[in-house]
Design brief:
This protein has three helices and 15 strands. By secondary structure, the chain is an alpha/beta fold. It has two domains: about 5-80, Beta Barrel (OB fold (Dihydrolipoamide Acetyltransferase, E2P)), CATH 2.40.50; about 80-225, Trna Endonuclease, Chain: A, domain 1 (3-Layer(aba) Sandwich), CATH 3.40.1350.60. The chain has a six-stranded mixed beta sheet.
């Protein structure tokens, strides 16, 4: 997808969630951080070069949205989780699929994407963004209650055989190599193993950031160990 990136310097995260200060050509600006977690918990961010875009919503509280952070080895880590579903949907559309975004399938579950492939198969697609500056990552990173509820729904859905399910990991830092299931989260492990046994597909995508675009690229070089 096309993006009009603006280069800036990250100054600091603010106490309130979703806000940070950036420096654009010597001017200090507020920017929206489209990520519910404090980024400094996962990556080094202070005084880093960042990419931002202008907020298109005239009612937005900030003029800019944070998109990506440059690392010490000069590659970009995507931090804008609002773009995840868009770039994954674009990938499947470019590969001949029909994609619906945020389709409500039950009282308890709204799919990130509902895909109809070239053969007419309907696929529920759950998209998970993985942010870290390490090669190995534990998932889920938080308590995982919502993730467990989703897997419980996928168990029921897979039994009906009306839909297939894709569980998509989007690696926001392409240096991530292995995702380990959190063994302490026994409910997550139990339901994940069941869903995989029932043919739920695990897929990995990397994020490609160019001068004026951001896109998803499928990769088979990563591992999920459970």
């Amino acid at each position: 997808m096309k993006c009009k990136f603006i280069e800036a310097k990250f100054l600091r995260e603010l106490k309130g969630r979703f806000l940070c200060e950036i420096d654009i050509d010597g001017n200090i600006e507020l920017a929206h951080v489209p990520n519910s977690a404090k980024l400094s918990k996962y990556i080094e961010i202070e005084d880093k070069n960042v990419l931002v875009v202008k907020n298109e919503n005239p009612k937005a509280k900030t003029r800019y949205q944070l998109c990506a952070v440059e690392t010490d080895d000069n590659h970009w880590i995507m931090v804008n989780l609002n773009l995840l579903n868009k770039i994954i949907a674009e990938y499947y559309e470019d590969n001949g699929c029909n994609v619906q975004k945020e389709r409500i399938l039950s009282d308890t579950y709204k799919s990130d994407l509902l895909i109809k492939d070239k053969n007419g198969e309907q696929i529920v697609c759950e998209v998970k963004g993985i942010i870290a500056n390490t090669k190995d990552v534990i998932f889920p990173m938080y308590s995982g209650e919502r993730t467990v509820r989703q897997l419980e729904y996928f168990r029921r859905l897979l039994k009906t055989q009306r839909f297939s399910v894709k569980y998509v990991f989007v690696l926001l830092d392409n240096n991530i190599e292995v995702i380990y299931a959190d063994k302490l989260n026994k409910e997550f492990v139990k339901h994940m193993r069941y869903c995989i046994k029932k043919q739920m597909q695990i897929e990995f995508f990397e994020v490609e950031i160019q001068d004026d675009s951001i896109s998803a690229k499928k990769t088979v070089e990563k591992k999920f160990i459970i």
